[in-house]
Recover the amino acids of this structure.
């Protein structure tokens, strides 16, 4: 008997969704581009060399392009572009051929297909790992982060972006309300997302040092909910839950959900908002040079001296 | 299209890749264009110069259809 925890996500279906989304991905990549630019910006503030970097979710090469135009490009030696979807990976570097960069050598690309749940990297072999908007589909997130940490050299950096808990809150609420109303019960239509506040804690549990998380909330306006659904499909972000509701949404449920969406969240101009929350985290593979708290009582200097004041003991002698 | 003469895998990739199932070492089989994991008894295909490191896409080394001997063009 296996004692493995139940699987939340169907990885094979996830791969299929991405494969299917590949041809139209460039038309709905605004979130992905934003996450890629955030990650590149994060890197440009870190004055360190990264001889070998891996992008675990290369998709159509958004991070490579964001990196190419950032000051961090000079500090990244080589970038391996990896993806769960072979079809996505084939687009990488081709969708924007005018950008020529030493990291994106079209004749000799560093590319591979992998599953983030089973990383194929040797221990302590990488200097930088990037993962964008992909971790929210992983069954064992801490386990995957542990694998990332192990693949990093000591003092190697992980930059990850995932969708936070407020993502698609309007759609989620409308669907649940509509299905409950029409059917008297609701199935899982929208994935659970990790909470932004948990992000740094997750990294810490996976053994990363100095974890930092930032939340970027984006509100996108759509003409109607159908346009939002079309975008989600184009991103490859449609339901890949193992326990997903198997009955398709019927027209009455969907129609009611769209009514509720417009009633509860509609904007004065008739459009509807959709919230996306991008949580960007950074963490370092532990190394002795990193800052850490000293042992209590190990101070070599009196605090009073550092502050230039006189120490007043609590208990007079 | 570049006339891809079965694009070779970049040595920088070979240096860092291990079997995703066992984390054991991989052998690069240039003839079959595969990365072979003896420890998992799997051969990962390389397509368009990109190794496909997914067990579900790999060829089992123990599968009967594998022509283990019949390769006259490549003597020892």
């Amino acid at each position: 008997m296996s004692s493995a925890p139940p699987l939340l996500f169907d990885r094979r279906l996830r791969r299929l969704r991405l494969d299917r989304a590949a041809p139209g991905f460039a038309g709905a990549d605004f979130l992905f581009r934003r996450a890629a630019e955030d990650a590149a910006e994060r890197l440009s503030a870190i004055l360190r060399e990264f001889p070998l970097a891996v992008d675990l979710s290369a998709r159509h090469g958004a991070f490579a392009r964001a990196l190419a135009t950032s000051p961090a490009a000079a500090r990244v030696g080589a970038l391996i572009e990896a993806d769960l979807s072979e079809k996505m990976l084939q687009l990488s570097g081709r969708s924007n051929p005018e950008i020529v960069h030493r990291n994106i050598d079209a004749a000799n690309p560093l590319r591979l297909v992998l599953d983030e749940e089973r990383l194929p990297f040797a221990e302590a072999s990488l200097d930088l790992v990037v993962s964008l908007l992909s971790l929210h589909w992983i069954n064992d997130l801490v386990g995957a982060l542990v694998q990332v940490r192990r693949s990093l050299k000591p003092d190697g950096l992980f930059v990850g972006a995932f969708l936070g808990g407020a993502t698609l809150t309007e759609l989620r609420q409308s669907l649940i309300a509509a299905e409950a109303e029409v059917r008297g019960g609701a199935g899982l239509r929208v994935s659970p997302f990790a909470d932004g506040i948990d992000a740094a804690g997750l990294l810490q549990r996976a053994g990363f040092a100095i974890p930092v998380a930032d939340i970027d909330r984006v509100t996108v306006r759509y003409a109607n909910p159908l346009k939002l659904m079309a975008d989600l499909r184009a991103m490859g972000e449609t339901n890949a839950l193992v326990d997903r509701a198997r009955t398709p949404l019927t027209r009455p449920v969907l129609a009611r959900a769209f009514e509720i969406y417009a009633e509860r969240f509609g904007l004065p101009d008739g459009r509807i908002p959709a919230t996306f929350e991008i949580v960007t985290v950074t963490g370092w593979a532990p190394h002795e040079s990193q800052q850490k708290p000293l042992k209590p009582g190990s101070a070599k200097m009196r605090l009073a001296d550092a502050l230039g004041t006189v120490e007043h003991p609590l208990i007079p002698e | 299209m570049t006339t891809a003469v079965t694009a070779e895998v970049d040595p920088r990739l070979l240096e860092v890749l291990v079997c995703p199932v066992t984390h054991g070492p991989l052998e690069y089989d240039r003839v079959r264009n595969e990365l072979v994991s003896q420890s998992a008894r799997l051969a990962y295909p390389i397509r368009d110069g990109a190794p496909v490191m997914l067990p579900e896409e790999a060829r089992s080394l123990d599968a009967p259809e594998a022509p283990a001997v019949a390769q006259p063009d490549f003597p020892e």
In short: Residues 11-16 of chain B form the longest helix (6 residues). The first strand of chain B starts at residue 27 and ends at 29.
